[in-house]
Amino acid sequence: MDFQTFLQQFVNALSLGSLYALIAIGYTMVYGILRLINFAHGDIFMVGGYLAFYGVSTFLMPWWMAVIVAIALTTVFGVGLERVAYRPLRDSPRISIMISAIGASFLLENLAIVLFNARPKAFPVPEFFARNFILGGVHIASVSLIIPLVTAVILAALLWIVHRTRVGMAMRAVSTDIEAARLMAIDVNRIVSITFAIGSALAAIGGILWALKYPRLEPLMGIMPGLKCFIAAVIGGIGSIGGAVLGGLLLGVIELMTVAFMPELTGYKDAFAFVLLIVVLLVKPTGLLGKNLGEKV
After folding, report:
1. Which of 19, 33, 109, 261 has the least CB density, counted as fewest CB within 10 Å?
2. pLDDT recorded at residue 297
3. How far is CA 221 from CA 57, 122, 216, 225, in A?
4. How many other CB atoms are found less than 10 A from the CB of residue 291?
5. 227 and 94 part of one domain
6. How far apart are CA 221 and CA 127, in angstroms?
């Protein structure tokens, strides 16, 4: 493999890893607050992509407006899901809320098949995102440059919110001890809703960027990316925002670069995530940047 080909593949891997990181942050934030694996997160990712699609194709919105509306509606949807499916079970055993999350995921997938039709749809890609730039003989799609930039900006904003604002301080308090946070007059329900709002907005942004990079929508499109992003969060250290980003980047780079160097393994590229997960958990069970948060019972 020559240097230009290597650079081309590395840019693609960085773009994919940034997408994984963006979606994994949503998993890790919810887990950090509630110790809940939101299995419906990948399906919220799918909803964001479809809402943007219908905003452009059916309601004839300008592309930028369709994106804003899709993110806003997906955020409201995610908060509503938490109130209906998770909040009533918050004081129940962990297995109950986990089963509810799995049920919500299956419900959303099958509801999407009924509402959106199972036939794949082509996502409308604006001309700007479809452009290719040539840098040093390497052809780079503009969307492959935009995705890491968006992820970096969102990461910086989230770290500022978590470490420099009152809401972030309350999030860290709830994450540490939810009962103690209640005794300190922190509105736990509000903090959980804000966390789900942020996570759902990130899922929507991830779904739209995914559809721009791979312009094909289908009701089950969130299953495999959702699993991989959950794995990325675990690899990095679930509960750690920086860990989610590290895990996503690592997973994306290993997945694409392995295929680039060994094309005969292309059919097994989805298995790389699970192999990496097993290796990391055997070496460092809490993840690369994770801490032992304990288990709420």
Report:
1. 261
2. 41
3. 19, 13, 9, 8
4. 11
5. no
6. 24
pLDDT in tens, 128-151: 888 888 777 777 888 988 999 999
Same domain, 71 and 122: yes
179 with 119, same domain?
A: yes
| Residue type present at position 251 | L
Domain hosting residue 212, numbered range: 26-130+159-221
In the predicted model, is pLDDT for residue 296 greater than 50? no
pLDDT tens by residue, 31-64: 888 888 899 999 999 999 999 999 999 999 999 9
Return the structure tokens found at 39: 């299995």
17 found inside a domain:
no
For 37, 108, 160, 285, the CA distances from 102, given in Å and listed in that order, are: 9, 10, 32, 24
Q: Do 198 and 236 sit in the same domain of this protein?
A: no
Find the angle CA(36)-CA(22)-CA(284) to the nearest 5 degrees.
60
Find out whether 170 and 191 touch, Cβ atoms under 8 Å. yes
More confident residue, 209 or 265: 209
Closest CA to 44 of 213, 253, 229, 212: 229
